[in-house]
Design brief:
The chain contains two helices and no strands. It is mainly alpha-helical and 72 residues long.
Length: 72
């Protein structure tokens, strides 16, 4: 019984790592896009958090798509 619980915990940890992986990728993309737009418009204070929030949403969407594909 303990071995089964350990396997279940390991599988859950792997799934959580995959979710956070996509969120971090999305945040990096959003920060880079927000920084480039902010530098070109000379309004970094506005575009950096906008890019971060958009990137975070993209990361969550990518992780949910990845989870749906894994369940199939």
């Amino acid at each position: 019984m303990k071995k089964e619980n350990k396997k279940i915990k390991e599988e859950n940890n792997k799934k959580e790592d995959n979710n956070s992986y996509w969120i971090v990728i999305g945040m990096c993309i959003g920060i880079s896009v927000g920084t480039s737009i902010g530098a070109s418009t000379n309004n970094m204070g506005l575009w950096l958090p906008i890019g971060l929030s958009i990137g975070l949403c993209i990361g969550v969407a990518l992780s949910s798509v990845k989870n749906k594909n894994e369940k199939k």
